[in-house]
Amino acid sequence: MRHEGAAKQLWGTKFIPFHVPQIDEEEIRSVVETLRSGWLTTGIKAKQFEEDFARYVGAGHAVAVNSCTAALHLALEAVGIHEGDEVIVPTMTFTASAEVVIYLKAKPVLVDCASDTLNIDTDQIERAVTPRTKAIIPVHFGGQPCDMDRILEIARRRHLFVIEDAAHSLPAKYRGQTVGTIGDITCFSFSATKTITTGEGGMATTDNREWAARMRMMSLHGISHDAWKRYAKEGSWFYEVLRPGFKYNLTDIGAAIGIEQLKKCDGFAAARMRIAAAYNEAFAETPEIQRPICAPDVQHAWHLYVIQLQLERLRITRDEFIEALKERGIGTSVHFIPLHLHPYYRNTFGYAPDDFPNATEAYRRIISLPIYPGMTEADIDRVIQAVRDVVQASRNP
Ligand SMILES: Cc1ncc(COP(=O)(O)O)c(C=O)c1O
After folding, report:
1. In principle, which of 9, 184, 206, 333 could form an S-S bond with 368, CB 3.0–4.6 Å?
2. Which atom of ligand 1 is nearest the CA belonging to 193?
3. DSSP strand pairing (305-309 vs 366-369)
4. Closest residue (by CA) to atom 7 of ligand 1?
5. pTM
6. Is the CB of 97 under 6 A from ligand 1?
7. Pocket of ligand 1 contains residue 100 by CB under 6 Å
8. Rounded-to-integer distance, Cα 189 and Cα 202, Å
9. Which of 55-64, 199-208, 224-233 has the lowest mean pLDDT?
10. Cα–Cα distance list, 62 to 137, 320, 347, 348 (Å)
């Protein structure tokens, strides 16, 4: 606790959490209105949220579900992934991106990340393709779109589906094209820490009518079209089970929040962009901190601001750096513990740390700093000062 005394003196006690969702009166009113309406589960609010979302990203169809994990599962099921197939997934991601492959008894095949963007290393995708490979799941790490031209080119040539994990990337663009309209199906997350939230929730977008219909049906037990209306005046008690589906539908309570959040999405994005710019400027002259790079041809959603510590220049580890920031009242996180380092993936697929050296090495260095619209200028300055102070206190002589 070598920084503790100084921290208390310098920073007082106000803690800046890693994330705080931006919930205003509009969301609260919308939820209360829904609660008073007597219709809590999937209904007109979920429908409206789907329509608003499809329009916002410019996709033909949007299917609202209760998580991004659900959206990814439904997307893989809709394109026909099944037992024995292989699906390419970056190791630098959350387990959701890969576990959905396992739900379908297929095999996730991990690929390393590029050491700068931490996005999937496209040079290594092709080496992972086998005759069993059916799809690629690019994850737009932190909100920065992957090199989609290259990924789509490989996918077309090798006849693979592209299911984008866009949990971090609303709103984002790749070479002028909005994420949500690029791959075969794109999956978004509205869990509490994401760029917009419904508490928990997700959305799958696609231009393919059949896949959209399939996902919609499978999201509600595989029962016939518009089954959610069966308790409404215009609905009917009659339904038929067409497939063994899942229970993935989004509630109207969640959608009521999502509709209001989506209206503010551009404003939220601008706020995050400003914070990223402030951090970029502040750490420009701090060689101990490697800043996240942003490709010139993308619009970054800045869901995460991930620094990489230049550990050779510091006397402390990443974990100690995080503790020192906490002592100064700054909450942080780590995105991600690469999948190949987790016991399940190690033991099941035999992965070792050296299999993906870029991700293994990045993992030792990464810290996600707070970045969300509710941060004040003073909060941003506090984070900057705390990072500088820890660097100062732990710099190699
Ligand atoms: C990259 C990535 N994919 C998928 C998910 C899963 O999202 P959800 O919690 O909405 O299922 C997350 C959640 O943090 C994530 O970070």
Report:
1. 333
2. 14
3. antiparallel
4. 68
5. 0.96
6. yes
7. no
8. 4
9. 224-233
10. 18, 43, 37, 34
